[in-house]
Amino acid sequence: MKDLLFDRLHSGLGSVLDLRQKQHSLTTSNVANVDTPFYKAKYIRFDDLLKDAAGSGDNLMKTSHERHFTGLNGTVEEPQVFEQDPAPWVIDGNSVSLEREMVRLKSNALMFRSVTKGMSKRLSMITFVANNGKG
Amino acid sequence: MNILDTLRISASGMSAQRVRLQSISSNIANARSTSTETGEPYRRKMPVFKAITHNPFGSEIDKNLSRVEVVDIAKSQEDFRQVFDPAHPDADEEGYVRYPNVDILYEMVDMMTTSRGYEANTSAVETTYQMANLALEIIK
Questions:
Q1: Which residues of A touch B (CB under 8 A)?
Q2: Distance in angstroms (rounded) separating the CA atoms of residues B99 and B31
Q3: Model's pTM, two decimal places?
Q4: How far is A16 from chain B (nearest CA, A)?
Q5: pLDDT in tens, chain B (140 residues)
């Protein structure tokens, strides 16, 4: 029997949290090395991961039209880490841009927050059902 | 890679920037020190930063995470400034005094970038803390 309480969406949200946490540690590592010569900024590309997760794997929804969504796979493999090459005019060979890292830090935290909210709502739905609909 | 390791990386960035600020203050304080223990004028101090892989045995992400360490505090090999001042006790036979190779303007600019770097690391710590709290609030 399929697990109805903690289904693929649940584990999918979990793996997104995991990815966001990984992106966050990469960003803090970039910020710490903002003045290290020849250090290259590192990051994960979320749009590529979404492309991989969409329309791949088994247990996808059946569609009757080519423009219907098949849903997401729900699991993401170990992400690839990309490196930012320094601009040619940079003397110390460091490619960390503090502004870019700060934006990445905050937007990543915002996405993390939205996923935790989603999980929290899902759990309160389960609690609602488990309590016979009494809050 | 857990939250504590992330915090440790930010802490390494902060302490590296603090060492940098210490060398800058030493440079500014000694901008006119014409003699030291070695006899020659004060040389400008420069911390050398190195990125060190935090956990070389971890996952793909872990191998890409680096803390920063100060591996050396190098002394600048630039030429000293020569000023003609025969009355000075450290003047040579021709009356020239060698002053440190410290340029206050460079030090001030370095001080600003150091301060920004430190600030960015505290901001990263703050965000890490918020994210950890959010993760705890899922089960609330």
A1: 17, 20-22, 24-29, 31-37, 39, 42, 78-81, 98, 101-102, 105-106, 109, 112-113, 116, 119-120, 123
A2: 8
A3: 0.80
A4: 12
A5: 688 899 999 999 999 999 999 999 999 999 999 999 998 999 999 999 999 998 888 888 888 999 999 999 999 999 999 999 999 999 999 999 999 999 999 999 999 999 999 999 999 999 999 999 998 888 77
